[in-house]
Amino acid sequence: MKDIDETQAPLLDHLIELRARLVRCILALVVAFGVCLYFADPILGFLIQPLKAAFPAGEGQLIFTKLYEVFFVELKVALFAGFCLSFPIIANQLWAFVAPGLYAKEKRAFLPFLLATPILFGAGAALAYYVVMPTAFRWFLGFEGTAGGLEIQALPTANEYLGLVMQFILAFGMSFLLPVLLLLLHRAGIVTREQLVGARRYVIVLVVALAAIITPPDPGSQLLLAIPLLLLFEGSLILMRFTDRKKIQDEAEPEEPQSAS
After folding, report:
1. Which residues, at least 6 apart from 52, have a Cβ–Cβ distance to it below 8 Å?
2. At what angle do helices 219-252 and 200-214 cross, to 10 degrees?
3. What is the value of pTM for the model shown?
């Protein structure tokens, strides 16, 4: 009981600090949500551009089947954009809470991963927006035509389209974080480069299956996700090789003799 009493104050201090940082994260998200809600129409217009480009010029439309549907679509757009806008502040607050408990060497080791995370996520989201979505939407619209004397026309709803866009962006953005995950596991000693090289064939099957699950059912978007993931996997193996070589060199360096007192 004495040990518990002695550690109670530091634990309470940590909990108070965690609460304060969580409050700042929520405030940042609320402020970003409010700003994005004000600009919800331009943001929605930006997200609609891949579908607009897939339709023939002057054609295409988004419909809504419920009176309140567009209102909730704008709320979702504002929340999604607000989270993306406030993510640097949220990540900074989480890092500020965790960093004091790390050694200087550990901070230097984790800092590149923190910097690489938004860059890789943005690269995946950009690939989804500028390449994958226009290609996939053109493929989907190719099913328009006639059947049994009736016209088959694409009339996507605003809510369904937004859900599809968010699925694309999150799927590609999160998938592009594969190198960060692999390098963290390697640095922690959980996996080795030799183990990953030996499991390459299984990784290929897993990546293809993952691309088929998290993307819409068209072969184009599945290949456009699977191929970059395989390239990122191979790039992670190359970085692991350099990391292992540097670790061996550091261990091989003789220690400096201590001066006589």
Report:
1. 60
2. 140
3. 0.80
Provide the terminal-to-terminal Cα distance of the chain, rounded to the nearest Å: 45
Distance CA 37, CA 28 (A): 14
Cβ neighbors of 252 (< 8 A, separation 6 or more) are none
Which tens digits make up the pLDDT trace of 211-256? Answer: 888 877 777 888 888 999 999 999 999 988 888 888 787 777 655 5
- Please identify which residue in the block is written with the tokens 């694409």: 154
Q: What SS3 state is found at 145?
A: strand
Query: Could you tell me the CA-to-CA distances from 43 to 38, 62, 64 in Å, in that order?
Result: 10, 15, 18
pLDDT value at residue 86 = 92
Give the position of tokens 């016209």: 151
Q: What is the distance between the alpha carbons of residues 49 and 54, in angstroms, rounded to a whole number?
A: 9
Helix or strand run (H / E) with residue 157? none
Q: Are 126 and 168 in contact (CB under 8 A)?
A: no
Q: Which two tokens stand for residue 126?
A: 């950009």
Give the DSSP letter of residue 146.
E
Q: Residue 235 is inside which H or E element, if any?
A: helix 219-252
Residue 56: DSSP 8-state: P
- Asked if residues 208 and 226 have their Cβ atoms less than 8 Å apart, the reply is yes
Is 32 exposed, middle or buried (CB count within 10 Å of its CB: 0-12, 13-18, 19+)? buried
- In this structure, what token pair is assigned to residue 197? 């090289």
Helix axes 219-252, 178-187, angle to 10 degrees: 30
Token code pair at residue 261? 């007192």
- Here the tokens at position 147 are 């059947």
Displacement of CA 174 from its chain's centroid (Å): 3
